[in-house]
User: Fold Potassium transporter Trk from Vagococcus carniphilus.
Amino acid sequence: MRKSFAIIGLGRFGGSVCRELIKSDQEVLAIDSCEDRVNEYMNVATHAVVANAQDEATLRSLGLRNFDHVIVAIGEDIQASILVTLMAKEMGVPRITAKAQNEYHARVLDKVGADTVVHPERDMGIRLGHKLTSNNMLDFIELSEDYSLAEVIVTNKKFYNRTIEEINFRQHFNLTIVAIRRGKNELIVSPPANQMILENDILLVVGHNDNVDYLDDKMN
Ligand code: ADP
Assistant:
């Protein structure tokens, strides 16, 4: 379904979100106070305007409240990011996603009404940290402080050519296999208990971080 998005701040983060939304055929209004940035997005976004988002009258005249989703992607200027999030909330925008620079900023954005607070640098750091310190984990996404979704490659003979049931996977690791990636093109979603696991299969698992780390260790 086509939705309308307004992105405030066209730095690396806001800019990437804008390009991705346009690729998915969504309607995007791109806003930045810097004219050069706006010019860059003139032919990318559905509309692009130069405006200072801290000015409430400007936000009203842009009809911000009519958008399905507002993304506050202002970088360094934490005060502006908080104020804009607050104003978008007060205008009744149904969904607000805001980018945080640090933990304090994240807490304030949450308090003033952001539905989702993203912390790209921190999240990417955590993902990369996990990838770098493990041999078999290909990717790692935090779902909450304790739970995550991870991709682990099967490199232990004990797993080869045995079914999920035979390995007693769930009882043993207390993780759920949501999908198995096999080779380049095959994706087995929600595999049944009698699903055979092969060498170099990639298991997409959800569960507690401790259990994900345990599984990763067992692959060595
Ligand atoms: P990133 O880390 O995503 O690259 P930047 O700090 O480079 O973030 O980008 C943030 C963008 O937000 C800049 O292009 C800046 O001009 C814009 N911006 C900052 N304050 C405002 C504001 N009050 N109104 C509109 N745009 C703003």
Observations:
- The two ends are 44 Å apart (CA to CA).
- The chain has a mean pLDDT of 94.
- DSSP finds nine helices and 13 strands in the chain.
- Residues 55 and 61 are 10 Å apart (CA to CA).
